[in-house]
Amino acid sequence: MKDFLTCAWSIVCCMCMLLQVSVWLNNSIDPFESVSRKGETYWTQVAKTYNKTIPDGRKRDVDSLKGHYHKITNKVTLFNVCHGASDKRLEVANIQLKVVVERKEAKLIKARNTAMDTFPQMLQVDTFNTESWADSHLLDQL
Length: 142
Fold this sequence. Notes:
mainly alpha, 4 helices, 0% strand, signal
């Protein structure tokens, strides 16, 4: 039973930490600049948002949230950098996919245009006086 309670408590703590990070990032235009804002408006907003979404027994004040932020600020910054890098990679992959699709469509259009240009030339060939393949093949055998 003790192991279960320890596990449950660690899950609750992890969820609270994720919620705090989410609140910090959602209330900040730039997470790197959030701590250096003047006044307490940022931290008041963070505390208000955090306390709205957490059960009554887990609510925190501004100083508590600030102190916890400073303990894990390096991890939050690293997460934000990784998240930004993954967004960039996804954007680049989408651009590359669009380029590949456009090239494929261009080749298809070129092939259709070539066929359309060749078709009238084929119709202009005088086939009335041309010996058919079957006739020429039979003549070779004789």
